[in-house]
Amino acid sequence: MQSLRLGNFWSVTRRLRHGWVILLAFLLGGCHYDLYNQPKDKTYDPSSFFADGRGSRPNVPGAVQANRVQTDTYLYTGLINGAKADVMPFAVNRALLARGQAQFNIYCAVCHGEAGNGQSAVAQRGGIIPANFHQPRLRVAPLSHFFVTITNGVYRGDTANNGYQSMFSYASRITPEDRWAIAAYIRALQLSQNATLDDVPPDQRATLGQ
Fold first, then answer.
1. pLDDT-above-70 percentage for the chain
2. Residue range 143-157, pLDDT digits in tens
3. How many whole angstroms separate alpha carbon 90 and alpha carbon 100?
4. What is the DSSP string of the chain?
5. Which of 125, 108, 126 is nearest to 117 (CA)?
6. Are 85 and 142 contacting, i.e. CB atoms less than 8 angstroms apart?
7. Rounded Cα distance, 162 and 165, in Å
8. What span, in angstroms and rounded, lies between the C-alpha atoms of 206 and 210?
9. CA end-to-end span of the chain, whole Å?
10. Rounded CA separation 106/11 (Å)
11. Which CA distances in Å does 22 have to 11, 12, 26, 37, 50?
12. Any bridge partners for residue 38, and if so which?
């Protein structure tokens, strides 16, 4: 009787094992072929859907390739021969400053305040002291200082980055061009809060009282 029970036990075990193997095979097969065999145009295949008859589509305007070649060193690093510089890598106009203001208000104002004076909700409740861009040290800092800071973040501690990081890097969040736009807008904020009459062009000083 005991031998018969053991035989039944092993028989049921083998059936369960075989059942699991069959179920696993179905699951793996389903995961592969549902996507693998779906209708699609492969590279260089013709297509009647598009007017030019090509299945491969050109890049959309403004597309940026991954790991693009960075030929303009200053544009991407903010450094010239390893040093910061007080110059923009491209021309500054009203549209660029408007872009810089929009990006500043999204990413920077939450800590530094919309006026760039370090007064914000995070400063009041976050336990950190954001930089005040109107302090003398930053007013005379090279323009690329702000680009480098946005790119690399800020570490408090020794130069080997063994201290704590009080501001993380925004390199993966903000494009190099927008980081420069923010830097230009910060300089505009500094000028707006600390300008003197000598900074106004002579032909426009007469309109200040209007």
1. 75
2. 999 999 999 998 776
3. 14
4. -HHHHHHHHHHHHHHHHHHHHHHHHHHHHHHHHHHHTS--PPTT-B-SSSTT-BSSPPPPTT---TT-----HHHHH-EETTEE-SS-SS---HHHHHHHHHHHHHHTHHHH-TTSSS-SHHHHHSS-----TTSHHHHSS-HHHHHHHHHH-EEES-TTS-SEEEE---TTTS-HHHHHHHHHHHHHHHHHHH--GGGS-GGGGGGTT-
5. 108
6. yes
7. 9
8. 8
9. 111
10. 67
11. 17, 15, 6, 22, 44
12. none
Cα distance between residue 18 and residue 209, in whole Å: 92
Cα–Cα distance measured from residue 118 to residue 50, given in angstroms and rounded to the nearest whole number: 53
pLDDT at 2 over 50: no
Percent of the chain with pLDDT over 90: 41
Q: Is the pLDDT of residue 108 over 70?
A: yes
Extract the tokens encoding 131: 């930089």
